[in-house]
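(Deposited chain)
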Amino acid sequence: MDLDSLRQGNFHQLGEAITDWQNMTKHLKTLAEDADKNLKGKAHKANWAGMNATVTREFIDKTAGEFSDAHTQADTVTKILSDTRGELIDYRTQVNDAIDRGLKKNLTVMDMGDGSFMVTRSTRPDWASDPSGQNDTTSQKDADDLRDEIQRILDKATESDSTAAEALRLIADQAKYGFSGASYADRDSAAKAIADADKMAKILAKNPHDVTNTELASLNSTLAKYKGDPLFAEEFATSVGPKKLLTFYAGIADPYQAQYDPERGKQAKQLQKNLGITVGQATLSDSDAMQGWEKKMIKLGPGQLDIDDASNPTGYAVMSNLMRFGDYGDQFLNDYGDKLFAYDKQVNGEGISLWVNNANQGDLNYWGYKNDRGRDPVTGFLEALGHNPDASTQFFAQPDGAGATVNKGSEVNDHLKYLTQERVWASDVTLEGKHGHVAGRDSLGHALESATTGYAYDAEPMTEKDPMIPGSGDRRTAATAGVMEEVAYLYGSEDGPKMLRAQPELADSLGKMAGAYIDDIDYSLSGVGESAKDADTFPAKYQGRADFTNAGAINFLSVLGQDENSHRAVTAAQHLYTLSQLDAHSSTSDADIEHAHDALITGAQARGILDNSRVEQAQTDYGEGSEESNKSLGRSADWIKLGAGAVVAGGVAAIPLPGTSAAALVVAPLAADTVGEAVNTFIGQQIDKGVDDAEADPAEKSQLTSSQFYGKGANQLGAAYQSYIEDSSKATDVADKEDWKDDINNAYYGTGSHENEYRGRASCKD
């Protein structure tokens, strides 16, 4: 900051600009509130169908979000400008006061240009003839003190000006299109975020072996403090640089260091998470600096880092373990994944794995370590996709030129085919881990869940107050449906039973995916072959709904029914969806009664396919009528308890899976946009009744013969039917006249591969 620039700066013009920004911020706040309450609010309350219910509503949501971001950015810019102007005016006052004091001591301050200034001592002409002999009493020390004081003020003014400029530049560069959501209360908070990022970057500049546990604790606490801060994240990432980030984490996380220093191991575990989140946030920036950073990081992937730590890992091995945490830029993840997979295809094969072998002891994953040492970089990358739904949907998108439905291998994404049919997977468990468990396939399931549902696979449960993260309601699109069609084609194919059998880690995810599309599956089941599908009873809830074909839906369900985990997830979703159909259709309206009948019949058909497959596979595995077979069926019948913890909001139900983490959910569509606990007439009553029945007989819970298993299924369908008609004489008359009971029984018992070779896939034999 030049002396004259500070003293003569036109802060009046800056004040006028701030006033303009303040006015703009007020207007944008009004627009943002109006967009949220009126535009977005009315759009969600509107009873739209078809294109308006999907494309228009999605566009309105994004538009409302842009207004909010515009207000946030304008408010932040206003605060930074206002704070900076106030500080600079104060520094100008301090400089002028110092200069005035100097004049009284006969000291003159002159701007010399180029950021320099001079303090000189003045000489009065009459001093030589002064009778008193008085001469200049100003010392050189006075001049030096004044110079130092002014320099300190100028340094502070420079810092105020430059940090404000840096913050504004970073904010402006965050988004090339639209607006940044970066929010700061004042210039100081933005400047501190940048300064703290630089301070932490200096720790990473050290040799990791020289970094103390105290420094690591400080690094972790600071990274956690600035979680989600865009300026901090970008400044930190660009200051550290891609290679130093990788070598530093590998040096800290080296398993041998953690083995000999447990405290270091604890800090390394948190560092993996905190670094992953911070770097992910940085990749959300569109700035040129971060674009260059990302390209360098990807280029480092296949090469070893030339370090003595962690078995001298590749860039992929380190970065993939960091990206298990955080929200990453979609383009970065897709570019990274494309390069990783191209390299993996070159080195993957039978025999010794490049990644998982005795020579590689670079365990860089601290989370779920027993079953996943983190040596396979594909696993960590897939976990990243599991937390980044948009990126995952893009990564597994149908190839260009695919038809309306997926009915041949050429219409399946190459990445998906490689991972499910071609890649040789290796177990990366410790001696204490689950023998034979392949964490990578589990992570593939997570990635596909996010790709098909639009939710992170471990999104938190919904409540009325805090909807499911990262949003509430149905997040399916034509793109997510396209991925789901690919999955259903692969696992509903002739090889589907063998694929599922060989990939047991995927079963729960496949069940959750099917549950998320149960309305589209029922729609595909509702016709006669490919004709007369019932779009009135099973309307599309989003544009470009999944089309599995009638045979495809049957085949897919029949494969999912074979595994206990996939069976329970999709059965729970089917049950809740059918109950929601009964909730949505009044038992006093002719049209609604017809829809309720169709929903019951199609639900019974889907349930019949699933249950038949479950019985057939249990008998194939353990022998018909055997104790183990009956135990397996007993476990499969216990799915009814899933509904007890279900919460509904925005037209979807979040159904927790017991025996897993609280965040493991089946996200199932409902026929009506109900909100709150699942206590509506049919959903709540039938779930409660089913749970009570399941608890009533512990012996039945532990073992069921195939006959009892089918009987339990028929009873649950019958209970839903009875509940619908019991308080409506009109519905009772229609049901009696049309013999609904026979329709339901025939739909439930008359489906399955053992009844007809065209009704699904046969059980898998080892």
